């Protein structure tokens, strides 16, 4: 038999007449624990509403349904940000553990609350202290095959536009143009992907006056700068 969280005061009376004493902190902890348990129950119920019964995960179809219910396009960058918040490992799939991690952090146990949390999530991601990690994550999230280390040019162009386009519009547009017309590279790896992010943050554009090819830049960026300079002249 479980003992009560609130201990009886020793007053010399029999147990049947002892008053139950509970401190305010005990009451708060008990109420907080119950609320947290109820919240997690609602988060779990929401997961199973969208999850595929066979796989036990929310799959691409479930994510599209969730997006439809939130009235958000499934290609919206905030869905990728949601995956980042969950630390989702497999593109297009959310496990129960990932779902719990993300929604608990966002304090969202209904579709309505999750939709309302998206603007704040975007602000969180776009903080300089978080964005580089999100940018790196977005590349790794798109590695869909085992031991895959690079992404094809067409997919990279779409990802660049989605993840970086709103912050570095000109750089992204020109780099995408270059990637589409060049023939030296069929795929992009993580080092090149991160190198372009550093390029956007450090190099003056469009004159590239502070770009030094002797520094440790990926070769593709040397070629991109040469292409830009030739284009401008």
TrEMBL record:
Residues 1-22 are annotated as: Disordered. Transmembrane segments: none annotated. It holds the Pfam family Cullin_binding. InterPro entries: DCN-prot (IPR014764), DCN1-like_PONY (IPR042460), EF-hand-dom_pair (IPR011992), PONY_dom (IPR005176). Residues 10-22 have a biased composition (Polar residues). Coiled coil: none annotated. Residues 38-229 form the DCUN1 domain. PANTHER family: DEFECTIVE IN CULLIN NEDDYLATION PROTEIN, RP42 RELATED. Neddylation of cullins play an essential role in the regulation of SCF-type complexes activity. This is Defective in cullin neddylation protein. It comes from Hibiscus sabdariffa (roselle).
